[in-house]
Amino acid sequence: MSDGTRGCEISWFSALCDDDYEFLGQPDPMLASSWEHCRDIVMQAETGGFDNILLPSGYALGIDTTAFAAAIATLTRRINLLMAVRIGESWPPQLARQIATIDRMTGGGRLKINIISSDLPGETMPSAPRYARTVEAMAILKDMLNGKAIDHQGEFWQLKLDPPRVTTVSGRAPLLYFGGLSPDAREAAAKGCDVFLMWPDKCETIAAIMADMDERAARYGRKLRYGYRAHVIVRETEAEARTYADRLLSKLDADQGAAIRAKSLDSTSVGVAAQAALREGASDDGYAEENLWTGVGRARSGCGAAIVGDPDQVLAKLRMYQDMGIEAFILSGYPHAAEADLFARHVLPNIDHAPL
Fold first, then answer.
1. How many Å apart are CA 56 and CA 83, to the nearest integer?
2. Which of 148, 163, 238, 325 has the fewest Cβ atoms nearer than 10 Å?
């Protein structure tokens, strides 16, 4: 436990997957994913002082993450890049080369990886083998990016390779971030990731997930770090923040929201089901617990709740999570560039934060 004053990593989110709105569910051509728009979000986050930025990946939506990460690496100077990679679309040795190359483009040490246990587009693999493949991929990536020779004889890849000539600047693998709530996902995380990411939920649920993951990781002689992915709405007063939350949903109807949620590639996952349950169990105004609003989940799959309040309330919520042992926060808001600026002005100066 902590008094909430220890450091943590504060990250923002760049909407590479067509997930930026003024009104949820109402596409705006000015906010659609493009090089220019997503670049501007990243630059706003760097100017605002965020430590890291998630660059998400979705096969069916938006622009390519790896290409974007390489380009934005040359424009940024301080902010870390959390590049999402979809294992179902990757050959690990080539992915390792891409990671090492982009790390060097950042000047070294500014690239981290968000592992997604995806299918190959057009195919559907059952959960257990899909996550087993992800565990193999994480092991291969770590060995190659740590400069080791590879002799991997697994179920999905059989590789015998000399140590790569090009590694990261440090010669070490970057941190691997990973999330998922199914038993297969939890086991994969316990075996291979460094930072286990969770979506919003009630405090007691988050604590139970962390306790379970501690036990699973310990069985493999490992210890995990924890991250929390949430949206945020901060205003000078709680009333203003709640009014803005209501405004976000003011042009959304139920059928439209359901169609948006169904379109996502992860719409049937255990994690998405947990977000739906959180939303369904919330109060009439959408709050699952104090300052945790589930309305966002009416118009998107995946992370479906926001921390809503005045600066002191948002800060208190984050410090409460820190007391639970969470060291990394990946935050976002709508529209992303504008909300990054508000959080950077109202909350970020009061947090002791730095990259993991």
1. 7
2. 163
